[in-house]
């Protein structure tokens, strides 16, 4: 198998496994949570998106990535991570704009990942950063999908309107 085929296989298998775990384990648990709590836990992994800055670090990659991929991917991840962190703070503090902050982060973060996935041709250059697109990106895509699903289901969202962020804010 060539490098791109291995990359594609690992990406798809990670996406399948993470999706199944999300469906079997996390979705049932999150369905019982208040809107703010569920969004907090789904947003949390994205606060670490600054890891994508590694695409600009020499000697971590097998060889330098093309600037057309590396710069937008690195700074897109950084932006998504900062927006996720702001959304977490807004959710934790029950700010009135918390849901808007989640929407903003989720849209920006999804666009960033979809843009990066257009550049599958750079896979051979990932070197030690191979785990980012083959494991972390599928995890992030699944959580983005789960966030959109949660935001777009008003009946579920309103169910616990009076109990928003009970467990997160009580910690």
Topology:
Layout: H1 3-31, H2 35-43, H3 67-92, H4 98-117, H5 131-151, H6 154-159, H7 166-169
Main traits of this protein?
mainly alpha, 171 residues
Mean pLDDT: 91
N- and C-termini, Cα separation: 49 Å
State the major sheet.
none
Give the assembly state of these chains. single chain
Secondary-structure element string: HHHHHHH
Principal-axes shape call: globular
Could you tell me the radius of gyration in angstroms? 17 Å
Q: Roughly what fraction of the amino acids lie in strands?
A: under 5%
Which bin fits the share of residues in helices? Answer: 55-70%
Structural class by helix and strand composition: mainly alpha
Number of helices: 7
Low-confidence stretches: 155-165
Q: How many domains make up the 3D coordinates?
A: 1
Total beta strands: 0
Describe this structure in words.
By secondary structure, this protein is an all-alpha fold. It is 67% helix and 0% strand. The protein is built from seven helices and no strands. It is globular, with a radius of gyration of 17 Å. Mean pLDDT is 91; it is low at 155-165.
Produce a short descriptive summary.
The chain is mainly α and 171 residues long.
